[in-house]
Amino acid sequence: MQQREAIRWLQLTYKVPSEPSQKRVWVWRRLQNLGAFALQNSVYLLPYSEEVEKHFRQLAHEIHEMGGEASIFSVTALDGDNEHRILQVIVAAREGEYNTVIKVCSRFLAKARWVVQTQGWSDQVHAEFAEVLEKVHVLFRTAKRHDMLGILTATKRASAAEALMVSEQVFRMLLDQEYTRANRLLEMHSDLLPVAMEVESPAASKQLVGQTEQSGQYAGGEDSDRQEEENAYGRRSNTSTVENARDSNHY
Predict the structure, then answer these.
(1) Distance CA 33, CA 12 (A)
(2) How far apart are CA 52 and CA 70, in angstroms?
(3) Nearest-angstrom CA–CA distance, 172 and 163
(4) What is the SS3 assignment for 14?
(5) Which domain holds residue 164?
(6) Closest by CA position to 4, among listed 80, 70, 72
(7) Whether residues 70 and 113 fall in one domain
């Protein structure tokens, strides 16, 4: 029986002064932005990498500067099943953010296809498409900033990058009203389009984008995917970002 290859993890354990509470919130947000897994209160994990070590060391230094305590440990799991579950949670959260980028790009390309078919380019469509792309770039940069998993999320990261690249290319072609070239590109990447092509026209629908809440908080899971997607397309949402799954088991 082939033995499972051990995963090396970095564990950050910390304690910050109870007052002012802003210090605890600030540390929590930093850890959310790193996509760290909350093993329990004030104990966070990420698979080892030089980048993770750099961020954990910097955060530990800043915690000491604010009068707190912080320790970093290199650990391996004794319970393989529990480790696999934790890894799945972390990867799913990161891939969820990339899925949001892919979903928004898919809707963008469906709208672009309608514009190509009707040759309905206008100043209004130009402004709306430009705003969507700007916000998708923000979503993609945020997803990459949260992603410390390297090869574990490489496939989904590449898919999101491809969807964004194709959206950019189609947009540039539409700027020059090169409908034939844009249609050819859309056909080449038809796998990026939604399965159901019942997409309303930009003129008949509400604006594609509206006020997007700019948030650096940790986002993961299906609910937060939907929130980011709806924000990019202008539907207001009061759904809060999903916190990391918490687990009380120790390594």
Answers:
(1) 14
(2) 15
(3) 14
(4) strand
(5) 91-232
(6) 80
(7) no
The Cα-based distances of 135 to 146, 201, 241 in angstroms read 17, 20, 17
With 0-12 / 13-18 / 19 or more C-beta atoms within 10 angstroms meaning exposed / middle / buried, residue 41 is: exposed
Q: How many CB atoms within 10 Å of residue 13?
A: 15
Residues 178 and 204 in one domain: yes
Q: Which helix (H) or strand (E) holds 91?
A: helix 80-118
| Separation between Cα atoms, residue 33 and residue 221, nearest integer Å | 15
Of the candidates 221, 112, 249, the residue with the CA atom closest to the CA atom of residue 240: 221
Whether residue 246 is contained in a domain is answered as no
Q: Are 90 and 35 in contact (CB under 8 A)?
A: yes
Judge contact between 62 and 125, C-beta under 8 A: no
Q: Does pTM top 0.90 for this prediction? A: no
Q: 53: number of CA atoms within 13 Å, CB side? A: 8
Nearest Cα to Cα of residue 164 among 99, 219, 218: 99
Q: 10 Å Cβ neighbour count for 113?
A: 20
Integer Cα distance of 120 and 63 in angstroms: 55
48 and 71 housed in the same domain? yes
List per-block mean pLDDT (blocks of 10 residues) for the chain, which spans 251 residues: 71 92 92 93 94 96 95 91 91 95 96 95 95 96 93 96 97 96 96 70 44 36 43 39 34 33
